[in-house]
């Protein structure tokens, strides 16, 4: 069965040829992958990035933006490799949300 | 074959067919080209197998990678351009098998 992401040749709308600036968090996600995959760390490969993006359900794949898919995939890869745990990630996300609500971010 | 790198099986000009296979998991051979026939344009080198790298393994032995040229009309039955139009894809050796050049 064809994977959802493998859509070459499928019907699609016109390509939007407009440029846009990246926001800060998107640049951070990009930097994160560069740092994780550096030769002196090798904590993930771009192939793992792709695999975990391709594993998204069709609906999530279409709904998420480019770097949303990246951060989803990076966190999945780091959990799979045992670099971080789900519990650790969940607790940290809650902390960050709380700081955001208090206006600290 | 060595432990590190597989020997190239194909040479430029040779007719090949992309294997029809549908393994679940990360592969680099697009769905639309599977089962189609093309001609080896060049050997690009040998690289760790991305299907293995995607699961945090070494990817060794390195797989030869080819640039394969396909006629657009062969790939897309309703292609409206000229018969000379082609599409080139880079495909790893384990996705290719020899094909006859007389049976388009």
Element pattern of chain A in H and E: HHHHH
Give the topology string of chain B: H per helix, E per strand: EEHEHEE
Radius of gyration based on Cα positions of chain A: 16 Å
Task: Provide the CATH topology of chain B.
Answer: SH3 type barrels
How many β strands of chain B by DSSP? 5
User: Number of helix segments of chain A?
Assistant: 5
Cα separation of the termini of chain A: 44 Å
Largest sheet of chain A: none
Can you tell me the CATH class of chain B?
Mainly Beta
| Helix share, percent of chain A | 55-70%
What overall form of chain A do the CA principal axes indicate? globular
| Most extensive chain interface and residues per partner | A-B, 15 and 12 residues
Offer a quick outline of the entry.
The complex is a heterodimer of chains A (105) and B (104). Chain A has 105 residues and is mainly alpha-helical.
Can you walk me through this structure?
The complex is a heterodimer of chains A (105) and B (104). Chain A has 105 residues and is mainly alpha-helical. Chain A has a domain at 45-105. Chain A has helices at 24-37, 46-54, 58-63, 66-80, 86-101. In chain A, α1 packs parallel to α4 and α2 crosses α4 (66-80). Chain A is globular, with a radius of gyration of 16 Å. Chain B is mainly β. The mean pLDDT of chain B is 94. The A-B interface holds A 1-3, 6, 8-9, 44-45, 47-48, 50-51, 54, 80-81 and B 22, 25-26, 30-32, 50, 53-56, 76.
Properties at a glance:
heterodimer, A: 105 residues, mainly alpha, 0% strand, globular, B: 104 residues, mainly beta, SH3 type barrels
What's the structural blueprint in terms of helices and strands?
The complex is a heterodimer of chains A (105) and B (104).
Chain A: H1 24-37, H2 46-54, H3 58-63, H4 66-80, H5 86-101
Helix pairs in contact in A: 1-4, 2-4
Chain B: E1 15-18, E2 37-47, H1 50-53, E3 63-71, H2 72-75, E4 86-92, E5 96-98
Antiparallel strand pairs in B: 1-2, 1-5, 2-3, 3-4
């Amino acid at each position: 069965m064809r994977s959802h992401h493998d859509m070459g040749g499928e019907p699609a709308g016109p390509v939007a040829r407009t440029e846009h600036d990246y926001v800060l968090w998107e640049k951070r996600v990009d930097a994160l992958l560069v740092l994780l995959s550096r030769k002196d760390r090798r904590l993930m490969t771009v192939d793992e990035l792709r695999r975990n993006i391709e594993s998204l359900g069709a609906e999530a794949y279409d709904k998420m933006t480019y770097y949303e898919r990246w951060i989803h995939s990076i966190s999945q890869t780091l959990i799979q490799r045992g670099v971080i745990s789900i519990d650790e990630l969940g607790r940290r996300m809650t902390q960050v949300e709380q700081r955001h609500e208090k206006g600290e971010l | 074959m060595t432990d590190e790198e597989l020997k190239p099986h194909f040479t430029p000009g040779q007719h090949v067919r992309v294997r029809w296979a549908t393994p679940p998991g990360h592969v680099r051979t697009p769905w639309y080209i599977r089962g189609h026939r093309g001609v080896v344009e060049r050997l690009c080198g040998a690289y760790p197998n991305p299907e293995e790298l995607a699961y945090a393994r070494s990817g060794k032995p390195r797989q030869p990678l080819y640039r394969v040229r396909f006629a657009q009309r062969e790939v897309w039955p309703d292609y409206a351009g000229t018969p000379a139009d082609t599409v080139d894809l880079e495909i790893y050796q384990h996705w290719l098998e020899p094909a006859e050049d007389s049976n388009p």
